[in-house]
Amino acid sequence: MEGESEDIKKLLDEEVKKRDNFFEISYENPDPILVARRYKDEKISLICSLFAYGKASLIVRFLDSLDFSLLESSEEKIKKSLKNSYYRFQSPDDIANIFITLKRVASEDSLENIFLKGYKKEQSCVDGLVSLISALEKVNRYDSYGYRFLIGKAPLKISGSSALKRWNMYLRWMVREDNIDFGLWKRVEKKDLIIPLDTHTFKVSGKLGLLKRKSCDLKAAIELTEKLKEFDKNDPVKYDFALYRIGQEKKI
């Protein structure tokens, strides 16, 4: 088993080195971070990550259609400007309200500071996300299926919580810094990040023997992160993009 683990580490390390390239992300090889890193702004990045579900090319096309300067506009202008915007489960009202929510939050504090209030208790990204998601809920009571799908639920306990893939991806962008991630937040440690686990990464990790859990949930994301710490205890989430591409390109 030790030899197998070394082989997997070698495979992943090679993929990390290969993928750590600014041109790994392009319109030919799309990913929502393509839009996020153009602005390098914590609020715009959160919008990009929350809409990161579905086909990558369609996500990028939708994000490119948004006028992010609306985050500095009045709520009336936001609603008027986005009245014809749709994305899968999200209606124009849903899209307008995520802009309104982030505008209201920004008037009180930065997203980083709100996250840190929870994170600093025990250096837990789960606690940080509870703090951040709860703050978004507090400033805007608007609710619908599409909006709730975007925001998700604050993970008040590990068991039974969703994997929070899009939120953990957002944290990866904000905290890590290489040729793909842009590391705007300097007070959160890379070692505390949790792998952004979706069904593709879940399946690949199972095939590689990195994950035994049968449910793709937050508990599985933490289990996989702990396993990846055996390969790099200080930056386990650096393997996220490698696992994603291995699955996408059907390398196993």
Give the tags:
globular; 13 helices; 252 residues; mainly alpha
Can you give a write-up of this model?
The protein is mainly alpha-helical and 252 residues long. The protein is built from 13 helices and no strands.
The ordered H/E elements are HHHHHHHHHHHHH
Structural class: mainly alpha
Q: What's the multimeric state?
A: single chain
Unreliable stretches covering 5 or more consecutive residues: none
Overall pLDDT level: 95
Strand content: under 5%
Helix % is 55-70%
Short description, anyone?
The protein has 13 helices and no strands.
Topology:
Blueprint: H1 2-19, H2 33-39, H3 42-50, H4 56-65, H5 75-81, H6 92-106, H7 111-122, H8 125-139, H9 145-151, H10 165-175, H11 199-207, H12 218-228, H13 240-248
